[in-house]
Amino acid sequence: MKSLLFLLLAIACFVPGLRASDDVKFYESFDEDFKGTWTLSENKEYTGVWKHEKSEGHDDYGLLVSEKARKYAIVKELDEPVDLKDGTIVLQYEVRLQEGLECGGAYIKFLRPQDAVWTPKEFNNESPYTIMFGPDKCGATNKVHFILKHKNPKTGNFVEHHLQLPPSVPYDKLTHVYTAILKPDNELRILIDGEEKKKTNILSQDDFEPPIIPSKTIPDPDDKKPEDWDEREKISDPDATKPEDWDEDAPMEIDDEDAVKPEGWLDDEPEEIDDPESTKPEDWDEEEDGEFEAPKIDNPKCQEAPGCGEWKRPKKKNPAYKGKWRAPLIDNPNYKGIWKPREIDNPEYFELDSPNYEPIAAIGIEIWTMQDGILFDNILVASSEKVAASYRDTKWKPKFDVEKEKEKQKAEESSDSDGLKGFQKVVFDYLYKAADLPFLGDHRSKVLELIEKAEKQPNLAIGILVSIVVIFFSLFFKLVFGGKKPAAKAKAESREETNAAESSNNQEITDDKEEKDGDAVAAPRRRNTRRDD
What is the dihedral of CA 122, 123, 124, 127, to 10 degrees? Predict the structure, then answer.
């Protein structure tokens, strides 16, 4: 009886473990050397050397990018293709940027079966994938990619669909774990270190570019704008005439006839004189160097006088100046609005309840990077979020905690010598978190660029931080209050635009002033301020 109970207990313990293992579709720990199980691309472009190395400060091995400024490509075929239509699928892996990431990728490609015409030894950037996922950073680009290649059932063509406003790449040199969760209800979630950074519906028209489901209609490519279509909202008043007293040739500025030459002005003294202390160098060769001329210095006599040299009357604004006359603007009676082609049915449109995912048959890493020290580890494809979470807890979290503690110790040591540095670190941590706020939109890359610049150049930090704060508040107020003018104000401004010729012409005066500034004003002279007194 006891033997039977022991056997039942053993089975009960074994079955959950078996079920958990069934949830793991693919797992690579890199505990063993990758050679023999992963295939290196034989394409000549990929000269980067992969190495089986320990993560810095750990006994845990990973797949290491060992050289700078190289292209890398390596692939591992799965024992069986993974069908992404069978329920929840989790794609997860760790990467550590041990030397940082200034320009390069650290993403993974989940490849289609080889009947899509590719082979492991020929693996390259053209090899067809189903999903590309992971960090990419260079210049203004700073994102965790999620790109789905989806087949249009109408055309048969595969189209890349890019997740919009994806999370940014962590800026430090710690190990981070990236997770993409695809749910059967079309939900997509992106996690970094187990924390949700992005959640959307994969069929969303707003979060993917282009959307997976095309628009029902498109502009007719054969539609042409009629020749008589008038898009001018305002036109010059054809009935307006230039006033008889309008002098277009009057200069913008004239001599000030009321100005008087200051008393004591030295007309015969030059503003500059030869330096009396200057002597010709001993090695001066007049045949080669020409006649020696002493350098000029300010005339000391001019320093005590109101000015030297020829006195000229200062300029003043010409009250008769009006500039070039232009007719005022009026509403265009023939205005038809901005022309747009008519809409027609989109021949590529289709309806879909859920994405028609292609299966995953291989895991590929195909990157170009300017940094070395990129370490990949614990690549997982699973059908259970709990299994993925358990791998994060047991594989990633212990390493991250150790690295975080070391980073904290370094910060404390640094703060002992300079207390401000520890505070700065906290400030930048919050700034990087704030840069992930959705309302920043397209401005996020610029904010990240400013944060990084402030970190690297402490002498500019205050000014840069002020700029970042201004951007945040400007976007926040625009989001809350909107950017459009009140209707009443817009109407008032419209009435002002159609006023009589004088208002229009005053504006033209300003324009002409800017155009003629360089011509009408004499070149500035030294100590001009004194002469104008």
Answer: 110
